[in-house]
Design the sequence.
């Protein structure tokens, strides 16, 4: 049994799950706070998390790059307003090296289970290979979108062509001149469909529901602009904050059904009308729910790609996957050499399949039977010394998730320091505090677009919004800037 050691005088040992945006941020800030006793467990062979795994053609972020990066590590060299996957991954890799995080990472190591040993006041972790590891504090940085959702489509196993999920793109599969059927038309699909359409013989998009799409307005930064950002970091920072407030104001469109919601929806309708002259196609692409209920898609190339003669949007439901294509409910067979499942992620089950057990052997999946919840998306009552990054109700529909992650890291690091300072065995958020926080969040969410009548990955099958934050991000920053330790049960370490 490999146990990370701890003496009463030393810093708490911290196990961080994942070396993506959250895990790296946590590690860097722990280091800056003087805590070096941490290990990141990463199932892949490289850092980057979602930006390592999602390598489909056209993968990019639709938050402006100068704001989609750590506040403490600005990058004057972003090539575009919205950077691509490779550039973001390289940024993360570079940052991990710069802050000395790489030696702390155990690559190719996946944690299968974690249980809190009440007697020792420590987490006992088990890897998928059966190795046991102990740590005082557990931090999850596994994200909300890391497990692909492969739908149980009838006949899927009988398909004789190549098939893969968008988050596991098969670059060995040559798509040139092929008939490709794409299931889904979410944020991933709309980025790769224009690339596919340029090489494939025929692309058929099987759309279950339409999405609101708004233009992206991407542009490249000239060498001169990059020099400017390098030379005047204060102005580059101002530019970053310009993006922040520009995005932050968009929450007003999701907060209710007032002027801003109507304004946003009108803008998206006008964009659809201007981009798609064919009224029949436009009808298919017009959503039947309020803007923002599902994630708004931001793209310049998707609508134009639908105008190509080799691209078709099919809205009849899938009836059966056959050996050589997909049959829809109208009886038509859509021939397919390749089937791409752009069907999203198992977003509402959060940390699953990791088995997490807290005080008294309480299982996290049981605590979350009615839908995941936490205090500030960070801590769960009965699961001491456990901090989630990008946990329940911290996703956004309008701003950069890195902003939220930095708030969470700041909060969690202060908790780790509190544990160290007072020699605590554990800190456990009070259940009344967590319950009242979640009642407030759900009350606020009920007014937002996310709770409106549509199915989305933001909510459970029963309709509870478990993924999204209910307000402006500035409100989240305010609430997380300093932990209120009176809201925790603090248990001293037995000497
Ligand atoms: P997604 O938004 O969940 O989209 C999944 C798509 O598959 C939807 O069109 C869905 O239809 C369809 N689908 C799922 N199951 C189906 C079934 N059984 N039959 C037919 N259609 C089915 O997934 P995603 O596109 O991978 O994006 C997930 C999230 O990742 C995004 O919302 C975003 O937060 C993030 N992301 C961001 C970027 C970016 O920054 N640009 C890019 C990619 C992803 P319904 O709508 O009817 O459910």
Sequence:
């Amino acid at each position: 049994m490999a146990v990370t050691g701890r003496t009463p005088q030393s810093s708490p040992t911290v196990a961080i799950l994942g070396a993506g945006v959250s895990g790296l941020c946590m590690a860097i800030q722990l280091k800056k706070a003087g805590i070096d006793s941490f290990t990141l467990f990463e199932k892949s062979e490289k850092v980057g998390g979602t930006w390592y795994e999602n390598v489909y053609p056209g993968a990019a972020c639709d938050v402006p790059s100068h704001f989609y990066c750590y506040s403490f590590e600005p990058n004057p060299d972003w090539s575009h307003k919205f950077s691509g996957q490779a550039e973001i991954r390289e940024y993360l890799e570079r940052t991990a090296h710069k802050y000395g995080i790489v030696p702390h990472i155990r690559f190719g190591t996946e944690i299968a289970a974690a249980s809190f040993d009440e007697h020792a006041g420590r987490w006992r972790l088990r890897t998928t290979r059966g190795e046991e590891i102990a740590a005082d504090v557990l931090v999850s940085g596994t994200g909300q979108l890391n497990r692909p959702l492969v739908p149980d489509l009838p006949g899927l196993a009988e398909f004789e062509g190549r098939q893969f999920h968008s988050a596991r793109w098969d670059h060995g599969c040559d798509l040139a001149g092929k008939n490709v059927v794409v299931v889904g038309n979410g944020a991933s699909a709309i980025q790769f469909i224009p690339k596919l359409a340029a090489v494939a013989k025929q692309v058929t998009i099987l759309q279950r529901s339409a999405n609101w799409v708004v233009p992206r307005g991407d542009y490249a930064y000239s060498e001169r602009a990059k020099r400017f950002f390098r030379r005047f970091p204060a102005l580059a920072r101002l530019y970053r904050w310009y993006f922040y407030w520009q995005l932050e104001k968009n929450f007003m469109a999701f907060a209710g059904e007032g002027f801003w919601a109507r304004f946003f929806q009108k803008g998206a309708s006008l964009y659809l009308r201007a981009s798609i002259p064919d009224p029949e196609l436009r009808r298919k692409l017009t959503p039947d729910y309020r803007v923002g209920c599902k994630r708004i898609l931001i793209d310049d190339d998707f609508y134009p790609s639908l105008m190509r003669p080799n691209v078709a949007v099919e809205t009849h439901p899938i009836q059966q996957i056959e050996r050589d294509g997909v049959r829809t409910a109208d009886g038509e067979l859509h021939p397919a050499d390749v089937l791409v499942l752009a069907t999203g992620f198992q977003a509402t089950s959060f940390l699953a399949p990791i088995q997490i057990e807290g005080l008294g052997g309480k299982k996290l999946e049981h605590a979350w039977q009615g839908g995941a919840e936490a205090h500030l998306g960070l801590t769960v009552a009965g699961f001491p010394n456990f901090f989630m990054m990008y946990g329940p109700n911290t996703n956004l529909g309008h701003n950069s998730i890195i902003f939220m992650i930095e708030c969470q890291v700041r909060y969690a690091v202060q908790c780790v320091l509190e544990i160290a300072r007072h020699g605590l065995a554990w800190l456990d958020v009070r259940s009344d505090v967590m319950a009242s926080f979640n009642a407030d969040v759900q009350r606020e969410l009920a007014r937002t677009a996310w709770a409106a009548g549509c199915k989305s990955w933001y909510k459970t099958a029963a309709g509870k919004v478990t993924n999204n934050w209910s307000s402006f991000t500035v409100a989240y920053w305010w609430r997380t800037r300093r932990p209120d330790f009176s809201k925790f049960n603090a248990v001293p370490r037995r000497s």
